[in-house]
Amino acid sequence: MFISVSSIKRAEAGEKILYRTLSIFARFFQVSIDVLLPNSPTPTWLYNHLISKSLEPCLGRDWELHQLHSLLSYVSRKNHSKTIYIYGITGCGKTHLLSHFAQCIRAAGHFDLAFSQQGSSVIRALKFSIINFIKQLLHIDHTATDAAVKEKVNLVSRTSLGYMRMLQLLAFDLNKNQLNTLSQQTPHQITKIDRLIADDLMRYAAHKRITLVTIDDAQHLTQTQLQFLRLFTEVEYPQPILFIILAQPQGLFTSVPEWLSLAHTMPLQQLNQDAQTRLAKHCLAKKGLPIAKYQNKLKMAIERAAGNPAFLQQLLLSSNAQQCTPLDLQLLIDNTLTNMPAELTELFQFSALQGFHFNASQLSQFTQKKHTRSPLCLTQKMLCSGLVVRKSDHYSFSHPLIWEGIRNYQPRGMTNPV
C-alpha cells in the first residue's frame, strides 16, 4: 500500500486544525485537553503541538508512553486514584520516560507533583521527605509561616486526632495534652488515623487539581518513608490522581513489594536495535558530530550497550567505545562495591571471574573457602544490590557492562583481583 506525500501533508494539516479546535474549547471550559477526548487517551502527536519547546525524544518507549496516557485517562474517567510502578536497572531510561510524560501532561493543562529521593533538576523534583510530601499535597509554599501551615492543616483535617497527628508528622512541637492524647493511641489506631490523613490529603490535592504525583529513586527511601507512602497506594481513593513510583530492583524493591499489589507494574525493558540506532544518531547529531564519520563507533556502542540507553550515550561520547567501561558506570560500580562489606565485595569479584552467568555451586565454593557463617544471607545481599539477578537455575549479572565493571574493580590498596 502506497501513501502519497500530499495525503501525509493533508493528515498533518488535519492534526493541527484538531489541536487548535481542542485548545480553544479547553481554554473556554477551563479543562485539560484530554477531558475533551473521554473515550480514548490523548494521542501522543497532539502534545507536539501543545509544547512550545520541542521535547527530548523518548525513543523506543512508544508502548510505555501509550500505557501512561491510557492510565491517566482511565483515572480521570473513573474518578479514582491509581498507582503505576515502573522498574528497571540503572540507565534504562526510567527518569527520562517520566520527564517526557510529565512535560506532556503539563502542556495538556494538568498539574503534577514530582519527588525524588536524590532530588532532580531533570524532572523538577523535590527531595522526598514526609514533610515535603504533605506540604506539597496541601499546596503549602516554603515561605509559609508556622501559623499559616497550622491553619491549612486545620482546614483540611476532618478530625482533631488527624489534626494533631498531621502536625506531628510535620515535626511541629505539640503541647502536653496533644502528646498525651496521641501516646494513648495503639499502633493500630495510629495507622487508622494516618489512613484518614491520607484520605484528607488526597481530597485536598484533587481539589487543587493535582492529577499526577511521581516518586523517583524509591529504592533509596527509608522504611518510615515507605510506610507512609504505602498509605496512598494500598487503597484506590475516589479522587482522579495517578501515582507513579520508579525504582531500581534493589533493596526492598528487589522484587515487586507486596504493598504495590494493586499497582499497574511496568518493567522497563532494554531498547530494540532500531530504537538504539535512532537514539545513537540523535545523540551524535545533538553534539554536532557527523553520523557518517562515526558509523563504526555507533555500531560498536550499540552492540556493547545491549539496549541500555544511558550506557549507549556514554559509550558514544567516550574516547574508547570498544574497550573501556563508561566512566560514569565504572564510578557507580566502584562506589557501590567500596561501600559494601568486604566479604560481599569479594563474592562479587569471585562471581565475575566465573562468567556473566554463574550457579549456586560456584557460590558455595566461595562461601566454603571463606568459612562464611550465613551463606544464604550473603547471597541474598548480592541479589538486593541490583547488580545480579536470579534465573530459574542460575544467576546472571544485570548487564554485560556491569559484569565488566565489576571485573575491572580494584579495591583500594590492592593491585590484584580475587
UniProtKB/TrEMBL annotation:
Per the database record, which ranges form the Orc1-like AAA ATPase domain? 58-244
Looking up Pfam families in the UniProt record yields: AAA_16
- Taxonomically, the superkingdom here is Bacteria
For this protein, the record's InterPro entries field holds: AAA_16 (IPR041664), P-loop_NTPase (IPR027417)
> What is the protein named?
Orc1-like AAA ATPase domain-containing protein
Organism field: Pseudoalteromonas citrea
The organism's taxonomic lineage, starting at the top: Bacteria, Pseudomonadati, Pseudomonadota, Gammaproteobacteria, Alteromonadales
